């Protein structure tokens, strides 16, 4: 299977998962709104969801897959199954221990994640209960990540790409059941959703296990021998997980600080879900297509060509991230109204969620650029510096949020998160340039301002269109009318931006024709 086809497979499944995720979140918003049960569930699901994001972003696979491929080449298929089985045994032991400790320490974890809940004993107790119910999902998502790595080594991607779809389908089924019950929202609803998290994890494991069995690569689970290969696996996987975790810690910090204001945790959750759509899809494009080219190009003897690889990746990232950020900022209100404002999710909730989404949109390009610059360090086997820079960004996030919270309230949290993303990206870029690992070429210097102009012009056109169609986007309008109007605005933005980047010379139409005519070029990471 070609690299392009693999990317389309994973990208299409991700879009399907995100789409179902929005369906899920609109149903949660209608069922629970932003009340105490919603706040409790979102905090309880935060830590398991953190692990899911880490594993899904490939931090785990980046250490496991290359070693599995090497083991298969050096000691054959049987040896590879022994290695994957040993890795699975170690992973299960660690995750089970962590889950048990976390379940016992759930009250302390809730105090840490949501200190504002302590003043509401009922909400605090419910959050502790839901946290304990959700924790087995950690074991499921860990097994799913390892089995997905086994399939990736065999160049089989579909099952792993569909696993998140199952998570959302199980959630939706649970929410339909709650709707059919026809009772007022209460703590029992939160427990149903927490159980759905675990059930979804089990279903994902079953899907991946069937796929691995069909591929003939079932891990040989046995007591592990800590040989050099297993130690190397830990040395590669742990730094990747920590580096990815530093970004997600920003989300945890946001939850901690926002918990001081009722409803803020839920507003941030819904805004983050919308923000994660472009970030997730763009991240896949960068991770699966552009970043392997960066890793290969860094060691090209032609220095200018090596610099160009990173520069072209940065251009592609900005070409996607800038219009996405502008669109989220301009259309934050209509998007929130169309997707969430119904049932228990009222007009006030829509206003606050809109504010959070607009603030997060400002940081979207920064977080995407982090995904471009970090592999330039990883390719040189330098994992400590990106972790250190990420730590600085987290510290800045905390400091800014705490400093401005007394003056502007909970909105300081998403603003600080956005600032932290830009600081992270700027520090990585500055270090690359100072160390001589990257030089900005003339093409990049010429195209970036044009990309900014195209995104700004698109935003102005969409904003004008939104004002003209404001009546059609009013909350009282039927969902079909609001949705169709929003779709027209999005299509208008895409057309304007696409036309401008061609007209301004950022993209050459002949390049697309030439690339369609060329066969896809495999890379060493094609198997990963």
Any idea what the shape is?
A: globular
Strand proportion: under 5%
Give unreliable regions as ranges: 514-528
Q: What is the terminal-to-terminal distance? A: 12 Å
How would you characterize the largest beta sheet? none
User: Mean of residue pLDDT?
Assistant: 79
Helix-and-strand structural type: mainly alpha
Number of strands: 0
> What's the helix-strand series?
HHHHHHHHHHHHHHHHHHH
Description:
InterPro entries: Lipid_II_flippase_MurJ/MviN, MurJ. Involved in peptidoglycan biosynthesis. Transports lipid-linked peptidoglycan precursors from the inner to the outer leaflet of the cytoplasmic membrane. Belongs to the MurJ/MviN family. The chain crosses the membrane at residues 27-45, 86-110, 130-150, 157-180, 192-215, 236-257, 277-299, 320-341, 353-373, 385-405, 411-433, 453-474, 486-507. It is a single chain. The protein is mostly helical. The protein has a domain at 1-242. Helix content is 82%, strand content 0%. The chain is built from 19 helices and no strands. Helix 10 runs antiparallel to helix 11 (303-330) and helix 12 packs across helix 13 (347-361). It is globular. The N and C termini lie close together (12 Å).
